[in-house]
């Protein structure tokens, strides 16, 4: 990450001729909203270093902007500048070009500060006020708006629903050309800052546009007026779109329980891979109980397997919440899940054999393990092909997603629990031995079929 000195000329700029939105101006301790009702209440409570979902608020802002395609960041910083610089310098994920403009040299109420901030920007820039958490989708929507509309309008996010003020958000898109112009300096002095003067001019010229947002949609932002608002923001972050492999049980049960656990893991500082390892250990413990062959041990093992599935939901949530997604973590999750499945199949086969079921049940357990192993191998090859070159038709992509989802789905745990409660685990072993082998054979045929070959 480059962090140039506070020189307004040395800035990473957009050189594209077409209007774009690739620069954000951050005000870590200043508000830009028209609605100042919560400013007095939040002073001293929430700051740029306040943890939100396991990350300092300022770091979360920078990483979210990067994910949304913002490559250049200008920070109008106060006394907290050194702390914020250290925060970014220690995090290798921060790759945006960052320019620091200390407010002692560039007071925000001075028009020249804003002229310097947008000096080499093509198109428009995004201005974000203090203590704000927002969705990546909202920034992507604003970028798309600039590209479609040519970056000639001041854009503000407008709450719909129960919010009191249409312009109380801490987000604003400013056309660089409008900021560099002189017209807004003649606007009535009743407006408090240059930002408000620019917005008032845009409204008078019909160049002010409002984009509706909602706390219940993927386009949302929230100003943290008080400490309790931090928990609300974390809950919204957890409600962000999940991974593509969630089944029915995940959606309506596992996720609801996992959300509470996720916050505990985040507060305890657990990494996603550590949570994955815990889930695997719980799953292997359930296999030990299945191997005993007793009814009560089988039910307890199935319950532990369900707990393992719930914990398994948390690793991805923590990764998304703290921007720690990785290909290694994804592979560890997929492989770990299937290692647990194979251990359970083997344990059920052994239990059946040890309790008078003969070598047939032991053979069924072995066949179920082999089928699961081949299924994992075929699906991993398919995922690698998808990542390397993609699929040549929507049909290929759809069938690939269906196969991976069925192998990775955690709904499997509720099936095991049901058979354990009904004392039919031997029947389940038959189904697993047959089904897992049919699954990998079908998958291998689909991925090798000439009509579906990538």
Distance between the termini: 37 Å
Uncertain residue ranges: 1-16, 450-454
H/E element string? EHEEHEHEHEEHEEHHEEHHHHHHHHH
What's the CATH architecture of the largest domain? Alpha-Beta Complex
Give the helix tally. 16
Rg from alpha-carbon coordinates: 27 Å
Count of DSSP strands: 11
Under CATH, the topology of the largest domain can be stated as Spore Coat Polysaccharide Biosynthesis Protein SpsA, Chain A
Structural class: alpha/beta
Strand content: 5-15%
Q: What's the level 1 CATH class of the largest domain?
A: Alpha Beta
Provide the CATH superfamily of the largest domain: Spore Coat Polysaccharide Biosynthesis Protein SpsA, Chain A
Shape: elongated
Helix content: 55-70%
Tell me the count of domains.
Answer: 2
Strand line-up in the sheet with most strands: 5-4-1-6-9-8-10
Q: Report the major sheet.
A: 7 strands, mixed
Average pLDDT number? 83
């Amino acid at each position: 990450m480059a962090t140039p000195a506070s020189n307004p000329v040395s800035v990473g700029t957009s050189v594209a001729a077409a209007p774009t939105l690739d620069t954000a101006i951050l005000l870590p301790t200043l508000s830009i909203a028209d609605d100042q009702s919560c400013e007095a209440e939040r002073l001293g409570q929430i700051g740029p270093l306040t943890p939100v979902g396991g990350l300092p608020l300022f770091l979360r802002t920078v990483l979210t902007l990067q994910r949304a395609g913002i490559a250049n960041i200008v920070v109008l910083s106060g006394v907290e500048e050194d702390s914020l610089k250290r925060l970014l310098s220690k995090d290798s994920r921060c790759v945006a070009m960052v320019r620091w403009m200390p407010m002692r040299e560039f007071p925000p109420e001075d028009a020249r500060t804003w002229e310097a901030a947008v000096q080499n920007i093509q198109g428009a820039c995004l201005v974000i006020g203090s203590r704000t958490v927002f969705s990546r989708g909202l920034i992507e929507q604003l970028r798309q708006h600039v590209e479609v509309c040519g970056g000639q309008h001041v854009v503000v996010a407008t709450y719909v629903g129960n919010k009191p003020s249409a312009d109380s958000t801490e987000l604003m898109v400013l056309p660089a050309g409008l900021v560099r112009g002189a017209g807004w300096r003649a606007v009535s002095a009743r407006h408090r800052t240059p930002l408000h003067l620019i917005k008032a001019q845009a409204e008078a010229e019909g160049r002010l546009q409002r984009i509706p947002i909602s706390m219940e949609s993927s386009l949302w932002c929230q100003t943290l007026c008080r400490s309790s608002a931090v928990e609300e923001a974390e809950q919204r972050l957890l409600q962000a779109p999940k991974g593509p492999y969630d089944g029915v049980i995940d959606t309506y049960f596992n996720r609801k329980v996992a959300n509470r656990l996720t916050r505990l893991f985040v507060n305890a500082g657990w990494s996603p891979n550590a949570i994955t390892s815990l889930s695997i250990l719980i799953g292997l413990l359930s296999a030990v109980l299945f191997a005993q062959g007793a009814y009560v041990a089988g039910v307890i093992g199935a319950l532990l397997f369900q707990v393992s599935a719930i914990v398994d939901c948390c690793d991805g949530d923590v990764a998304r919440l703290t921007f720690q997604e990785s290909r290694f973590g994804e592979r560890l999750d997929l492989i770990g899940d299937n290692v647990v499945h194979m251990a359970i199949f083997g344990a059920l086969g052994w239990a059946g054999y040890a309790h008078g079921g003969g070598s047939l049940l032991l053979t069924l357990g072995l066949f179920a393990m082999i089928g699961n192993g081949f299924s994992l191998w075929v699906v991993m090859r398919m995922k690698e092909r998808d990542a390397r070159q993609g699929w040549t038709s929507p049909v290929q992509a759809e069938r690939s997603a269906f196969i991976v989802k069925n192998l990775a789905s955690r709904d499997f745990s509720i099936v095991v629990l049901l058979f354990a409660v009904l004392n039919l685990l031997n029947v389940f072993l038959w189904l697993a031995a047959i089904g897992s082998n049919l699954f990998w054979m079908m998958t291998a045929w689909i991925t090798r079929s000439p009509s579906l070959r990538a």
